[in-house]
Amino acid sequence: MQQNKVRKAVIPAAGFGTRLFPATKVVKKELFPIIDKDGRAKPVILAIVEEAMSAGIEEVGIVVQPPDKEVFAEFFKSPPKKELFDKLSPQNQEYSKYLQELGSRITLLTQEEQEGYGHAVFCAKKWVKDEPFLLMLGDHVYSSDAEKSCTSQVLDVYRQVNQSVVGLTIMSGEIIHKAGCVTGTWHLFNFLLSLTQVYEKPSIDYARQHLRVEGMADDEFLCIFGLYVLTPKIFDFLEEHIHQNFRERGEFQLTSCLDRVRQQEGMTGYVVKGKCFDTGLPDAYRQTIIDFRI
Q1: What is the chain's pLDDT, residue by residue, as a tens digit (294 residues)?
Q2: Cα separations (Å) of 201 from 11, 169, 180, 207, 285?
Q3: Is 3 contained in some domain?
Q4: pTM: predicted TM-score of the whole model, two decimal places
Q5: Count of domains for the chain
Q6: Contact predicate 168/156, CB 8 Å
Q7: Domain presence at residue 251
Q8: 70 in a structural domain
Q9: C-alpha distance from residue 131 to each of 7, 102, 167, 257 (Å)
C-alpha cells in the first residue's frame, strides 16, 4: 500500500449529549469550557482542533447535526461583534484573529440522522476522499507524557508502519465494558502491537478468555484511547453495514468495521504516552477541569 500523508482529521460532534443533560439542552457538549495548558478558557472542540493542527494536520472536518452548523460556524468563522472585540485585551484580539485563520481550515459536515458513531464517521467519506485520515473523538482531550503530543505520536507510528493505527491505553477490568478493547502480539514490547482482534465493550469474562495480552497484569487490558489513523477502507465497511442495515445495540458502530479493516489490511495498536480526558460524562468532565491543565 502506498503511503499518503495524513492531511485531514475528522471529529464527530453530532451526538445529543444526553449524559450531560440538562446543560446540553442549551450548550453542545463539544462547546463546554475547559482551561487549557496555556491558561485560556476554551471550548473542548477548540482544544481538540488545536491538538490536531499542532501535529501537522492541514484540514479538519467536524461532523455536526444540521441545526448546530450555525453554532459551530459562529465560533470558528465569525469575528466577535465590534463592541466585544474592542473590550478584549491586545493578546485576546490577536487570538481572535488566529481563530478566524483556524476557521478557514475547518469544514463543517452534517449527519442528518443520529444513527451511531460509525454512521457519523461515514458522513465524512466524501470530504475525506481517498486518503488516510486522523479520527478524534469530539468529547476527549489529550495530555502527553512525552515531548511529542499524543496526536503526533500516533501520526508518527502511521508513518512507520504504513497501515491503520489505533491509539491504546491500559484499563482495569472493572471498566472495560464501557470501552473498545484489543488484543494482539507485541511488535515492540509495551509499544507497538500487531492487532489480532478489536472488540467493543466486552464483558470481563470475555476479555479474560479472549483479550489477554502478554505481559499485562491480571485484569488489565488494552483499550481504545480515542485517537486513530485510518485508511479509507473503513468507509467501504461502514457503507456495507449501512446498506445492509447491520446495527449493533441499535446503531451503526465503528469497532466491528475496524476489525474488518484489521483482517483485510492489518492494523497496529500503539500504547500512547499520555492521558485521555473524557468530557462527555459529569464526573469525568469535573475531573478534567481539575486535572487537565496540570
Answers
A1: 456 789 999 999 998 889 999 999 999 999 999 999 889 999 999 999 999 999 999 999 999 999 999 999 999 999 899 999 999 999 999 999 999 999 999 999 999 988 999 999 999 999 999 999 999 999 999 999 999 999 999 999 999 999 999 999 999 988 888 888 999 999 876 789 999 999 988 999 999 999 999 888 888 999 999 999 999 999 999 999 999 998 888 889 999 999 999 999 999 999 999 999 999 999 999 999 999 876
A2: 21, 14, 5, 9, 21
A3: no
A4: 0.93
A5: 1
A6: no
A7: yes
A8: yes
A9: 8, 22, 19, 17
CATH number at residue 199: 3.90.550.10
2 falls within a domain: no
Grid cell at residue 112: 442528518
Q: Name residue, grid cell 515531548.
A: 147
Q: Report the C-alpha gap between 28 and 20 in whole angstroms.
A: 9
Query: Do the bridges between strand 106-110 and strand 220-230 make them parallel or antiparallel, or are there none, so unpaired?
Result: unpaired
Q: Are 96 and 79 in contact (CB under 8 A)?
A: yes
Q: Which range of residues forms the domain containing residue 230?
A: 8-291
